[in-house]
Amino acid sequence: MTSIAVYHCIEEEQPFAEQWAADHGIQVTCFPFELHEDTLHTIEGFDGISYKQRSAPSNRPDFYQRLNAYGIRQIALRSAGYDTIDLMEAARNHIRVTNVPSYSPSAVAELTLAHIMRLIRHVPQFDDRASRHDFSVYGLISREISELTIGIIGVGRIGSTVARIFHALGATVLGNDIAPNHELDDILTWVSKDELLARADVVTMHTYLDATTRHLMDASQFAQMKPTAYFVNNSRGGVVDTPALIDALNRREIAGAAIDVLEGEATLFGNKLDAEQPLDNPYYNALHAMENVVITPHIAFFTDIAVKNMVWQSLDDALALITGGTSPHEIAPYDNQSHIK
């Protein structure tokens, strides 16, 4: 029987994996751990891989060669992002890679709405005051969405959903993308990135992480934003130069930030850590200490619809490639080794 190993399978994913296995007559084994050097041996006997993790499986140049030696010819990612995979090394070892480019744009867009609402209504600051029994409102008057200009960098499936939400709520929406979708011309205005940064009251990121987008937001970009503007990143941690973001917040170059992703997050997000031990991510520690910053632990994808779609599409793609077929979600190889996070 054809068998697929599902790595880093969390409790909420397992029922969907089991249902798919029953529907397709395929053996699916869910492992709670990630695929790394110390777990590589567990792939023996399997025909394929479904994979979701936030750190590269190995830094050894022969890792994909060893996967090939186990008979693995594909890796089906349960995510849109693929920056943890060395696509060139996978291709050199005849391993094809797929992703799930659209598991639920609404899931990410809705968290973006929640983040922006928390920022513009000063919820973190009111929470901080309430923790000290200070229920005053002085100095924290809010603006309404209809007054705001929302700037979206990366207007693909998710970014366009964000645009529709804020257009419906009465905001002015600006968009910037390397390939503008002019079907959206009636709900947003396409502008250069420089103009978007200068005009927007909220800048929200919805891009892939690749060689062209790594640290797309750096110190020079934050300096272009209005001091009253907010920054949101629910895409990938590496699209932001995090020290530059921290510096912009400390210098009050921007009014606040909300993030669901963070450089070096693999040791934090998704893990239950000892509350008595200090955290070893200085970026998180610095941002968490600021009352005008909202942090969620990479949960934008985490809805029932999105998780089901990620699991089922990943397994569909794995089975297609194992059995000699094709997938529209196959990723063409290029050298992305330099920006694996």
UniProtKB/TrEMBL annotation:
Residues 6-331 form the D-isomer specific 2-hydroxyacid dehydrogenase catalytic domain. Keywords: NAD, Oxidoreductase. InterPro entries: D-isomer_2_OHA_DH_cat_dom, D-isomer_DH_CS, D-isomer_DH_NAD-bd, D-LDH-like, NAD(P)-bd_dom_sf. Residues 113-300 form the D-isomer specific 2-hydroxyacid dehydrogenase NAD-binding domain. It comes from the Bacteria. Belongs to the D-isomer specific 2-hydroxyacid dehydrogenase family. This is D-2-hydroxyacid dehydrogenase. It comes from Bifidobacterium colobi.
